[in-house]
Amino acid sequence: MSGESGKALTREQWGSRVGFILAAAGSAIGLGNVWRFPYLVGEYGGAIFVLIYLLINVFIGLPVMLAEFSIGRAAQKSPVGAFRALSVSPLWSVIGWLGTLTGGFLVLSYYNVIGGWTIRYMIESLIGLMDLAAEGKSEEFFLSFISVRHQVVAYQALFLASTMFFVASGIGKGIERACKFMMPALFIILLILIFRSLTLPGAGAGLEFYLMPDLSKLNGKSVLAALGQSFFSLSLGLGIMLTYGSYLGREERIPSAATWTAVLDTLIALLSGFAIFPAVFAMGLKPGAGPGLTFITLPAVFAEMPMGMFFSFLFFLFLFFAAVTSSMSLMEVSTTFAIEKFKLKRSDAVWLMGVIIFLLGGYSAISLAGDPKVAGKDFLDAVDYFCNNICLPLGSFLVCLFVGWFWLEPALKELSNDGTLEARWWLKVWIWCVRVVAPIAILIIFLNETGLLTTLDAWLSR
Fold first, then answer.
1. C or N terminus of the chain, fewer CB within 10 Å?
2. At CA 294, angle to CA 291 and CA 295, rounded to 5?
3. Residue 103: which of 456, 402, 399 has the closest Cα?
4. Residue 331 covered by a domain
5. Strand, coil or helix: what is 377?
6. pTM for the full predicted model
7. What DSSP character marks residue 286?
8. What pLDDT, in 10s, does the model give residues 247-272?
9. Contact call for residues 69 and 328 (beta carbons, < 8 A)
10. Which CATH number is 153's domain given?
């Protein structure tokens, strides 16, 4: 595949190893790192949760990422095409369809909506948001904004258009070039925000909340939360890492690239907490989860700071970079599928997928003002729950099952570059993790999130 035609015999590749790592890390580093991870750290015991999260990333998240990269490079196809090419049974292609539909369509459809919020808040930071926040009206502003449907849809379209622009430009000239700029910029902005946050009077209380171990909160729920966050954060089970891996050259070392991706993702997640919690506590505010922390609490924090307008703009620019690098990877999944399935030019595939994703995302955008609802949830929340709590763990579980028990030898050749890489001991650890540890952990997540774990526990307690 090339950027010009789905009929081309050659497939695009990353221009450099650094470009691939930054793109893969950009995919992993998204909105969840900024608003979800710091909150979970504070909720589940501070440094204890961080330690659990790091161990899970090493022994569960990283092995699954290695499995996805190996499938992608071996097949050099989209998720659907990859499982068709590498498996004897057509049943395994279900994994590819699940990843494509989940990541390339469903997740991206509502991700664009939230991404659009970052654009609105960047603009408002320079206009009137700080004045409203200083008057205690940041929540009123947020609720007013998301209740005006045409505004939310317009910003959704603007964010999606920026994603489509980069993806339509191709792997090297589009996604890789954008990530080479956005990822360093994201890191620099985050360091500036951390410095400002830590120098505020009273910031120590936020550091204590964020980092001091609280053993009373160490329980099964904290471990499950860390498991869920690891897969959510590393973009596993969505077809993303498989798709990005399909553009890797044979000379690239998959283990090294995967390790750097996981390290950068974890580093940004940890640093986000240093930017957020010291500032929140310094201003005497309580941390909130999800959109409440990001779009309601933080504007109130910036409003109380000297140069608050500037730091608010920087923060939402940082959030935009994090969101758009993730959305590019999600859209690449559906774009690659369309190019292979319908033999389209890349630009035509991007337009086709963009229209479908925009229409699907429209339901999430307008649901914030009321209807439609699914099982009592806003459409956006319902899709988010379905993807992250059911599709994502299920897809990761099936990937482990396929690689660990049916495609192990080819996977070992991919990970060792046909046996040329040394330190074979880590391959033995990886086999154990991908065959046993990761599937069991993922199954526990799935059973817990669907309520089946509670049902099973009650049945066994009879």
1. C
2. 75
3. 399
4. yes
5. strand
6. 0.92
7. P
8. 999 889 999 999 999 999 989 988 99
9. no
10. 1.10.4160
